[in-house]
Amino acid sequence: MENIELKRFWEKVKEELISSLPESVHxxxxxxxxxxxxxxxxxxxxxxxxxxxxxxxxxxAQITEILKRITKxxxxxxxxxxxxxxxxxxxxxxxxxxRKEAEAQQKEQAIENLSYMQSASNLNLKxxxxxxxxxxxxxxxxxxxxxxxxxxxxxxxxxxxxxKAGLGKTHLMQAIGHYTIFNNPKLKVKYTKTxxxxxxxxxxxxxxxxxxxxxxxxxxxxxxxxIILIDDIQVIESKQRTMERMQHTFDTLYNKGKxxxxxxxxxxxxxPKLTEALCSRFEMGLMVELTPPDFETRLAIVKKLASDSxxxxxxxxxxxxxxxxxNNVRELEGAFTKVCAxxxxxENDITLELAKSVLKCKETEDVxxxxxxxxxxxxxFNVDTESIKGSARTAKVSNARQVAIYLxxxxxxxxxxxxxxxxxxxxxxxxxxYDQIKKNLGVNKENSAAIREIKQAxxxx
Length: 461
Fold this sequence. Notes:
alpha/beta; GMP Synthetase, Chain A, domain 3; Rossmann fold; Helicase, Ruva Protein, domain 3; 61% helix
């Protein structure tokens, strides 16, 4: 018989054997490999010596009858040969199967452990690095957060993320927690809103029974961690006793080499009545700002929302949403959800016309760009735009540059890092320039007048 014909013949014989013999020996039949056929004698090999012995001893007669019926040969029989190479092959396959089963069990256990740890850490499963849309205005914050996640208690401790509501501060903070739990599960992560921290501390202070034990529980909850993620720290302002406790938590963790990540809607020095001690501690690491996403990033966000939800939408409808909802990501997501909900309820496709009818947005003017600000400022001060963006240090150019930097910060939603990139300067230089103009606005009447007239030229109040 040719090989193909022999294999087909064996498959037919094997099917008969499986249907006729007890289920307890089926696994032995499956491991038999056909070797040859000659005048009614079908030769197969096995890597299991017990299969050879058991089949010959208990089922030889049944097997022979089956072969006679199929081959029409009176001397038909099954010749089973033990083969060392087949035995080795079976052993490798068995080991491979065991490894797969062990890996599957470990993976299942790991998922259970991760789910428990994520729940215990108070993390939201949707806030991960892989579903954070990165744009030029938040790239620095994203990379800083990822660096902290990969190397806790490295050079960025504490990491202080600030910006207005809905820009992704909590997302990045919790992404650090998820990354750590998945990649370094031995580390204990704790996420807390500042409100919860305050309420826990107040509750502890109000309990009259066993103050030492109560404080010990509070200590274990917030101090016995490797990474603490504290959201919305600005809420702590004016709460003197809680600030003292927060300082103690900070110092304990920092001195033990633990990573601290904090978010706020503003920089520490702009939080009223924040103690000088806490302010200096928050500023001692890396501070990064998140600003509203530009159009390209907003469009990428709504495209991802549509893709993740399996929703088909006209590109023009997504552009419409991205254009008209520019303040923050939360607002953008809400607009997208509203359009999707209406489309689903009315059984309509998501088109530009549908988005317009649902959202009813007023047409907005084009945003003010850095280039436009730089050009009009240069024209006002009678200097070249390239000089403002360059390294010239004459008093006239330096002043014009600082005014342009101030206006870029005031009139756009862009971060210091983005402004620094435009002016080819360090972001600390940009912060200094902005602070200098802002501080002297009431004193320097020339600059105050310049800013007022440049704003009028830009058609802003």
